[in-house]
Amino acid sequence: MSRKESGVESDHRKPRKTVQARSQKTREKILLAAERLFGKKGLHSVNSKEIAAEAGVAVGTFYNYFPDKQDLFLEVFERHSMEVGRVLDGRIRDEVARGGGGREFIYGLVKAVYEAHSLSPDFHRQAEALKYSDASMAVRRKQERKEAHAKSVALMAGFGDKLRITDHEAAAEIVGLAVESVVHELKMFGSEVSEFRMLKELADMLTRYLFRDDT
């Protein structure tokens, strides 16, 4: 009788799956605890002992998963960036599928960026600040910008002769910087003017810049 028929193989696999699931759960607890603490205090004001305590694990367990808090921060950042990208890509697909005019698309895009920045806003603020002082973060932010720029250029090409602009690459950079700047300012510092009015005016401005007529 084979190992599979006797049930020996499945019996061996069960403990391994249980250990793997427990290991993944512990890793997730550390990542979530780190995101909370990094968001509250920043990378340089948090130590590994605090993160372990917040996660409810021993310090030795922490080091079984991450060599130091810098590597942990970068992994938290990668997860955060992937989630932001997932939200943005989903909203953009929805806007494209809706098939509205340029104004509707741009307003939907602006709102999507704003909503994406609402994910873990405290951590996002800390990560944004680090891009000016941490080389690893600067490299990752540059790569993010490069990928976002390529997507923007491709989206613009889809509007064809409806566009007023002719230099898609430069226009994509301008639009990206404008949206990022306004959304970042609103999320970081707020505004005397309501967020709805600010986002609407931004979308109107970009629509007039990009399109031949008031689509």
Plain-language structure description:
Helices cover 79% and strands 0% of the residues. It is mainly alpha-helical and 215 residues long. The longest helix is centred in the first third of the chain and has 34 residues, at 8-41. The protein has 2 domains: 18-67, Orthogonal Bundle (Arc Repressor Mutant, subunit A); 73-210, Tetracycline Repressor, domain 2 (Orthogonal Bundle). It starts with a helix and ends in a 5-residue tail after the last helix. It has 10 helices and no strands. Helix 2 (8-41) crosses helix 3, helix 2 (8-41) packs across helix 5 (69-98) and helix 5 packs antiparallel against helix 6 (102-116).
- Tell me the distance between the termini: 73 Å
Number of domain units: 2
Measured as a percent range, the helix fraction is: over 70%
CATH class of the largest domain: Mainly Alpha
CATH architecture of the largest domain: Orthogonal Bundle
Percent of sequence in beta strands: under 5%
Provide a quick synopsis of the model:
This protein is mostly helical and 215 residues long.
Jot down its keywords.
mainly alpha, elongated, single chain, disordered N terminus, Arc Repressor Mutant, subunit A, 215 residues, 10 helices, 2 domains, Tetracycline Repressor, domain 2
